[in-house]
Each structure stands twice: as C-alpha cells, then as structure tokens.
Amino acid sequence: MKIPEKLASFATVLTETVQPSLIINGTIENTDITDHKFAGNPYWLNEIPYPTTDEGIPLRLLAQINFEKISTPIPDFPTEGILQFFVENDDVYGLNFDDQTMQSSFRVIYHERIETDHSKLLEDFPSFSDDDYFPIPKECALSFKETSEPVSTNDYRFNKVTNLHSLFDEGKYDEYDELTNEYTELYNGQGSKIGGYPFFTQEDPRAYGQHTDLDVLLLQIDTDDSLGIMWGDSGVANFFISRENLKKRDFSKVLYNWDCY
Fold first, then answer.
1. Domain extents for the chain?
2. Bridge partners (DSSP) listed for residue 92
3. Strand pairing of 193-195 and 82-87?
4. Could you tell me the CATH superfamily of domain 5-259?
5. Dihedral (C-alpha) 86, 187, 149, 9: value to the nearest 10 degrees?
C-alpha cells in the first residue's frame, strides 16, 4: 500500500484500515437466471410472493450475486446462495429519504440454497415500461476481481483515524485539500464493488452518528458510461450492513443510499 508523503504520519492507522473487496466488471449481455447480473430477470421461486412496495408495486431487480460462482470470496460474505437487490422503478430509484433502512421501496433478499429444478422457478415476471426511471437500462453480466483498499477519504471513518476533518472546522480548506488530494487520487472508493470502502458524491449518510453499526459495504454500483449506468447526474449507490448481521446472513437491516452531483 502506498501512502503519500504528506500523510506519512498516518501511515500506520491508515494501513490498519485495509479491507478486501471484489471489484465488479460488467458487460452488456443476457444472462442465465442464476447468474450474477445488473438488471434483467431475477432467480425467483414460484412459491414465494414476488417483492413489492407496501402499496403492491413490483420492485425491479437492480443486482444479483451468486456467491457459488465467486472463486475468491471475501471474509464474512456468503460462499453459497444468491443475494439480490431490488428497488422501486420510480424517479428516486426507491430511496426512502426519511429512513434509508426501511425496506419498503427497496429490498435485499438472500436465497441460501439455489433450486436446480427450473420448473419451480418463476418465468412470468413483471414488466417495466418506463426505463427513464431506472439507473441500469440494459442487462449486464458481471465478473469480479479481488483486491484490497484502505479507508476512502469520504468514508466517515477517515476522519476518525486521522482527525483531518477538524481542519474544516478551522476553515483550513486548502490545507485539507493539500494533505489529502494525492491520497484521494489513489484511494477514492469509486467503482462498482463488494466490500472495501465507499465513494460518495455528497457525504457519508453515517457521518453524523446514525447507523455507524452498518460498517460493511455490501454492494456499490457506480455510474458507468460503458454500461449505460447513470445515477441521477453521475452518481453512485451503496448498500451497507453490520458485520454481525452479515455473518448471520440477516439482511433485514440494510442502509440504501444514492447521491449525485
């Protein structure tokens, strides 16, 4: 890990924050029902009610990860089963501004065991006609590359380990930028990924002390021109979970956030 000279005094604490992650790469193509994917049709059992909002509006598959097809899993994440992320197909992509953990207009669902008898799987999926309200316009197949990264500058924990944000309280904005610019270029948290640290165009929703137990980046989907992915004005979406619940495979409390420039 490279630490810029201007942050050399923080080398030890920053190195201690390093976490593994899986960088997600995508290609626009059709997928099989149990494959990793952005958008497209989900793996879904006939016997289970399809996910909807509280008002009965069908949710749309945002992402699906089949952990049985990941050759290099990262610690505490599943090694089997399928994890899915659904959002409402509306103008705010299912974001609940009052409570970002309330799974009414979004849903995170884990299928621990994968049914191999495809006659038991749903084939008649809801149709979504207004693609203008969905950030991923075309189905994408996914692949993963293992890496590791230290805390990103706009993750709230960067301030906890360096206290450099105190420069903002003193109005020393240029000094902060001078100290962190090179580090930000190296470790900005951008890109689609599982694990590691997030990127925000605005600020970390956990910055003011709420939901700090949700310390694991479960999934990040970044704007990607090559795939046509666009969150508002070149934004990014993130899902966070506590490590305890991740280990228990309990996805009932997840923080969903997206922001843009």
1. 5-259
2. none
3. unpaired
4. YwqG-like (2.30.320.10)
5. -140
**Token pair 């497209």 in the structure block, residue:** 40
* CB 61, CB 84: distance < 8 Å: yes
Amino acid at 168: F
DSSP 120: G
Structure tokens at 198: 């997030």
**DSSP letter, residue 252:** S
Torsion sign (Cα): 249, 82, 217, 70:
positive
pTM attached to this predicted model: 0.96
The CB-side HSE value for 218 (13 A sphere, CA atoms) comes to: 30
Element (H, E) at 12: helix 11-15
Say how many residues make up the chain. 261
Average pLDDT, 10 consecutive residues per value, the chain (261 residues): 93 97 98 98 97 96 98 94 97 95 97 96 89 89 97 95 91 93 96 98 94 97 97 97 98 98 94
